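Entry 12.
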Amino acid sequence: MKEAIHPTWYPEATVICACGNTWKTGATVPEIRTDICSACHPFFTGEQRIVDTEGQVDRFMKRLQQRDAIVKAEEDRVAARTSPNLALSELGLAKRYVTIFSENGIEIVGEFMAKLQEGGDEALLEIPGIGRKILADLKRELRTRGYELPESN
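Predicted 3D structure (tokens):
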């Protein structure tokens, strides 16, 4: 064995717990401090208690409330996106098409969906100035926003 490379051994090292319990053991340091031991650990004592160091439970509850607020905000945002009262002008249509739809009594998504439901694509294609391309683009935009469109005839 090499000389002077091993730590000093203390055969009577003292272990001190936060609860006040102490005992002797062998170690490489003269004194060991611990937060919990068999005299105060809930498994050995049989009592239930929460060891809350620095408000961990409070921090967890706060994070849980923040998560709930974020989830509710997202649900509200999705509900607003799929509202039947959303104006067609907010869907990114060219002003020309918004004007054509408006002149024919279709200004909000709910009215568009009702017209699509009652007459299908053909009812909308009968409107002068509305073609298959704008109809397909409008339906694609509505689907990406989460709207469920009626089946085409």
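Annotation: The two ends are 91 Å apart (CA to CA). The chain has three domains: 10-45, 52-81, 88-144.
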